[in-house]
Design a protein that fits this description.
heterodimer; A: mainly alpha; Leucine-rich Repeat Variant; 2 strands; elongated; disordered N terminus; B: about 350 residues; alpha+beta; 2 domains; eleven-stranded antiparallel β-sheet; about 25% strand
């Protein structure tokens, strides 16, 4: 990008370059006749890319022009409609001023009007209140305005307002040399009791070392003796004392307090708007901004206001060796792109090779554009800087490291939230968070920042399970077993997310990268082992939890949610892995009293079937990849589950194989005919559906006869179940059960895989 | 072990093999991760350490050179590696840091460039303060007051001192690429506001992070044992332990002073492996002290918290404060502190 173009693009640059005329907004047209052509064309050239000149803009501009002319000429005494016109013009000026600010010329004219006393006090006040610059105020205007103060045409209250305005707008005045020459005049105004606080504030801003003179010190001390310890006088005195310690021997309170209050509040929103105009629009649409506002309570011991450092590219270390260079030179010279100007994604793309990095890498957490950059950058030192900063910050902020120090809990949670947002944005975990978990998990009480902490777990970067298990999962398991069912559910939820993140990472990365012939866990097979170990581990956790919580339905939902992910790995992520659920999950789910559990189980079985079928098909096609052939054990296991399910739901022949139930037990339970007691009609989870179905279809029947559901009725019943939303069941039956074409018979047999 | 034996540096991996590095754990980040994993899965401290040897300071060292670092109380900090720190720029850093301090001290006031602020900052290296050749040079930062009266020009008063060092920091050096300077141990003496300002400047300039380095009771016992084990020509101070009993409203402190020769005799009786200190010996040493105390006062010191250890070699407080008394063992003391600092930043 050429330097000229950059000047055009960025407002900050425009401000620093003095040669280009920065006073050109709409009001410039006022004095069009005075300006030469080149300036006019420059103005249009400047504004064209920014916005189209719509009619509305033209009209507003004209109205403002007329209003300013009106004020410049002064009131026309005779007209009866004077008040109306005046009001209209005032409104116009106010609207423009608060909306987009006034150009220096406009402020120059109107300031004159307000202080010359052409209009009444009320009008002057209103004009002064809306002296809001677009970006800058010319020094001359201020000097002229001050000269009006000497004439005595304006009232005391107007003077007060003027000083307050001057203090508020001080930073936007382009130069201060001339104003400083008026130091004596301002100083003399201290005599005026009403003005004194405001003049003090102005002097506080204006004072330089050479302004501090013995006679002024005497005067100030005299005033202080007269008026007592006023905070504004104290402020000025302490400033004087700072510049000339030898001149002032009185002791001033060392602790700083608020010297000046409320002098800005009239223009607070306006000031914000002006600053924003100067600094450019907020960098990103709100939803992309990751961080909270930069406001943090000032509590940090090392005077940084927030845990996360501010974005700042002007690092001293880079400045070194380029002594004597003005900042603007520096910005332009080496072609690097300052971070402060980075506002949009296209800008990032354009400048990606010359981007200046933040002096503190931690700042990227709050900036989504830089997170993009971090994501693709190959420079290890950038990541290492982030790693060190983040590890230390987490360690320092972690509240359960400090005894009885829970007051920063909210702040810690906020920090974790920011980190998690960044991880989610990158779809990748930070190593620092992983190491933080190693250290902090053994000390965690399972309560503090639980949701954040478990989310951190779900973003652990992919790594060898056997390595991570003793550091992480074993500690988590201890908490898991002794905590409430809700905690168990949250842990399972976050482990499901962890699995998902790992699968995503593997499915995008492994397939792109060449499979290395080096250590085991870098190969696809090694990775698959790790994933299956993780799944087995979560399966073990789930089985134990089911036993501990006596087959709680709520818990079972979370477990099945997890297996919904697991069963689809082959198809969804294109990874050669199918892991079945353990019997400790399958049987409780199959015999659950809850129809939605049964439905979910059916769905999962259907997905397993689709994945295994796809795997089988692939194996037949490419015989080479023998490494990833699924063992016949997996197929056998699946077929066993399938047989049991079909037996329990369809053929009424439950548990024919592999399960022996003592006849006595069955007699005791009073279900001697258990063989016919378990099918879609009699399944405890579906009983209520059967009854509703029968009542709905044959309301006249006096007795509900369940065993009547057969043949045609069986099919109607099925349709009824499907219409009740049992979609998983529908999929399962459609795919796994071959129904004979004749609807009358009930001969069905499971479709075996192998 | 000869400190010079360590090889200069390990060969660096080229950019082309980065992808592979990532997988086999050879990138700095992977290395750090491996290190932390190792550390988290085993007992954090090695069961044995060397007794500080007086010969460890490099020969070209004038014994009085570091005298000004002794007999002062230092507050300890751990520090992550400095990014793009260069020993050739120390002059420039002095200039920048003094400007930064001036600006910080007058926050809210306009600071004119080139103005005199009655303070001066100096950076200088502490040549030779290292364990191996690989350790980066230690360096010193001082804030000096410029005197107001011209006649006093010569006597500049030191307002604040801080120094950065790395003694036997191999475990950290191995995992950090050359853009970084590893000086994990930072010691400061002077007003904390100054420490904060200097620290902030370093953090902003070299993207590093300071944390206070507290010393837990476990490590204090190690210090007690190692320092008692040091051979001394003459003892300058009694060996003293301070235990704190947490009780309300005010905690109770128990001080336990022993004649240093008695302490040494006790140590010699539990000490077996020459030149080394083992975990068992440390435990035994402390247990002897405990049982002796219990015999007289019927108080189980092991149930309280050790907060301070003072010996003729050095004294250390659990808050992370240290005072070094004996010049001979300076390097040995710093080596242990460096180890603690590295443990904290891992």
């Amino acid at each position: 990008m050429s330097p000229q173009k950059r000047v055009k693009d960025s407002k900050a640059q425009k401000r620093t370059s003095q040669d280009s005329d920065s006073y050109k907004t709409n009001l410039l047209a006022l004095k069009e006749e005075d300006l030469n052509d080149s300036k006019c064309s420059l103005k249009h050239g400047q504004n064209d890319p920014v916005k189209d000149y719509g009619h509305a803009d033209d009209e507003a501009e004209d109205a403002l022009k007329r209003a300013v002319r009106y004020f410049e000429k002064g009131p026309v005494e005779t007209s009866r409609s004077r008040d109306k016109t005046l009001e209209k013009h005032l409104k116009t000026v106010e609207n423009v001023a608060w909306k987009s600010g006034l150009a220096p010329e406009g402020i120059d004219i109107l300031l004159n009007v307000a202080l010359s006393g052409k209009f009444g006090n009320v009008v002057n006040t209103r004009i002064l209140k809306c002296m809001i610059p677009t970006t800058l105020i010319s020094e001359d205007s201020v000097v002229k305005a001050v000269s009006w103060l000497c004439v005595g045409k304006c009232s005391g209250s107007t003077k007060v307002l003027f000083y307050r305005w001057l203090v508020a707008m001080f930073d936007f005045i382009d130069h201060k040399e001339q104003i400083n020459l008026l130091y004596g005049f301002f100083f003399a105004s201290l005599e005026d009791d009403a003005l004194c606080p405001y003049v003090c504030h102005l002097l506080y801003l204006l004072t330089r070392k050479e302004n501090v003179k013995p006679f002024r010190v005497r005067k100030l001390l005299g005033l202080q003796a007269k008026m007592g310890m006023q905070p504004h006088l104290q402020a000025l005195l302490s400033l004087y004392k700072f510049f000339a310690p030898t001149l002032i021997s009185v002791s001033l309170p060392a602790r700083k307090k608020i010297y000046f209050r409320n002098s800005e509040n009239l223009w607070e929103t306006a000031l914000l708007a002006v600053r924003q105009r100067i600094q450019g629009p907020p960098p990103e649409p709100v939803k992309l901004m990751l961080g909270p506002a930069n406001v943090h309570p000032v509590k940090r011991k090392w005077n940084s206001y927030s845990v996360i450092p501010m974005l700042n590219s002007s690092s001293c270390s880079k400045e070194c060796g380029k002594k004597g260079m003005a900042l603007s030179d520096y910005l332009r010279s080496n072609g690097s792109f300052p971070l402060e100007q980075l506002k949009s994604f296209p800008q990032l793309l354009k400048n990606i090779h010359s981007l200046e990095l933040p002096s503190q890498m931690g700042a990227v957490l709050n900036n989504s554009l830089l997170l993009h950059y971090i994501n693709i950058v190959k420079d290890e030192s950038i990541l290492l800087r982030l790693y060190h900063w983040l590890s230390q910050t987490l360690q320092e902020e972690c509240i359960w490291y400090k005894v009885n120090n829970y007051e920063h809990g909210k702040e810690f949670a906020n920090l974790l939230d920011t980190i998690i947002r960044a991880e989610y944005f990158l779809q990748e975990g930070f190593y620092s968070c992983e190491t933080f978990l190693y250290k902090s998990l053994p000390l965690w009480d399972g309560l503090c920042c639980r949701s954040q902490f478990l989310q951190l777990v779900s973003w652990i970067p992919f790594s060898s399970f056997s390595e991570v298990k003793p550091l992480l999962f074993d500690h988590l398991a201890q908490l898991f077993f002794i905590s409430t069912i809700y905690f168990k559910c949250s842990v399972l939820q976050s482990l499901k997310e962890l699995l998902q993140n790992w699968l995503l990472w593997l499915s995008t990365d492994i397939h792109m990268k060449p499979v290395m012939d080096s250590p085991l866990d870098t190969t696809l097979g090694g990775s698959m082992n790790t994933v299956s170990e993780l799944i087995d581990y979560i399966g073990w956790l789930s089985t134990t939890a089911m036993r501990l919580e006596s087959n709680n339905t709520f818990l079972l939902h979370f477990i099945l949610d997890f297996y919904e992910k697991v069963c689809d790995i082959y198809v969804n992520y294109n990874l050669p892995l199918v892991v079945l659920f353990p019997p400790g999950i399958f049987y409780p789910a199959l015999l659950s009293l809850d129809s939605s559990i049964l439905n979910q189980l059916c769905y999962i079985m259907d997905r397993y079937r689709k994945n295994l079928t796809a795997a089988k098909k692939n194996e037949l096609v490419q015989k080479t990849k023998s490494e990833f052939n699924f063992s016949t054990k997996t197929y056998k296991e699946f077929n066993h589950y399938l047989t049991v399910m079909v037996g329990c739901l369809w053929t009424s022949k439950p548990f024919q194989k592999g399960l022996y139930i003592d006849h006595e037990v069955i007699e005791k339970a009073g279900v001697a005919e258990y063989k016919s007691s378990l099918n879609l009609v009699h399944h405890p989870a579906l009983l209520s559906y059967t009854v509703s179905f029968l009542l709905q279809e044959w309301p006249e029947e006096r007795r509900v006869n369940m065993s009547s559901v057969r043949g045609k009725k069986w099919n109607w019943y099925l349709d009824y179940l499907f219409s009740e939303g049992l979609q998983g069941l529908k999929l399962f039956i459609r795919s796994s059960i071959h129904r004979s074409s004749t609807p009358l018979t009930r001969e069905h047999k499971p479709h075996h895989q192998h | 072990m000869d400190p010079y034996d360590t090889p200069e540096s390990t060969p660096r991996h080229g950019a082309s093999s980065r992808l592979k590095d990532y997988f086999i754990g050879a990138t700095p980040l992977r290395k750090r991760l491996e290190a932390v994993r190792k550390q988290a899965s085993f007992v954090p401290t090695p069961p044995r350490r060397k007794i500080p040897q007086c010969s460890q300071l490099q020969e070209d060292n004038d014994p009085q050179k570091f005298a000004f670092l002794l007999h002062k109380q230092w507050t300890l900090y751990s520090l992550t590696p400095l990014y793009k720190f260069s020993y050739t720029n120390l002059k420039e850093y002095s200039r920048l840091l003094s400007a930064f301090i001036a600006a910080e001290k007058q926050k809210g006031l306009a600071v004119e460039v080139g103005e005199d602020f009655n303070i001066k900052v100096t950076f200088s290296t502490l040549l030779g303060m290292k364990g191996t050749q690989r350790d980066p040079e230690a360096f010193l930062v001082q804030i000096l007051s410029k005197s107001q009266l011209p006649s006093e020009n010569r006597g500049q008063k030191v307002l604040w001192t801080g120094w950065f060092c790395c003694v036997f920091g191999d475990s950290l050096l191995e995992t950090v690429p050359e853009d970084f300077t590893c000086v994990p141990l930072f010691l400061a003496n002077g007003a904390e506001t100054n420490t904060a300002i200097v620290g902030t400047w370093f953090q902003e300039t070299f993207d590093c992070h300071f944390s206070s380095l507290a010393i837990n009771a476990f490590n204090l016992s190690w210090m007690a044992a190692m320092w008692t084990a040091c051979k001394m020509d003459q003892y300058m101070a009694t060996t003293e332990f301070l235990w704190s009993v947490p009780c309300s409203p005010q905690s109770l402190d128990i001080s336990y002073a022993i004649h240093p020769e008695d302490a040494k005799a006790l140590w010699d009786s539990v000490h077996k492996t020459p030149g080394e200190v083992t975990q068992e010996e440390v435990d035994l040493f402390m247990d002897c002290l405990y049982s002796h105390f219990h015999r007289h006062f019927k108080i189980h010191l092991s149930a309280t918290r050790l907060v301070r250890v003072s010996t003729s070699v050095a004294s250390a407080h659990t808050d992370g404060k240290i005072k070094i008394l004996c010049h001979k063992y300076l390097i040995g003391i710093l080596a242990y502190l460096t180890e603690l600092a590295i443990f904290q930043i891992d």
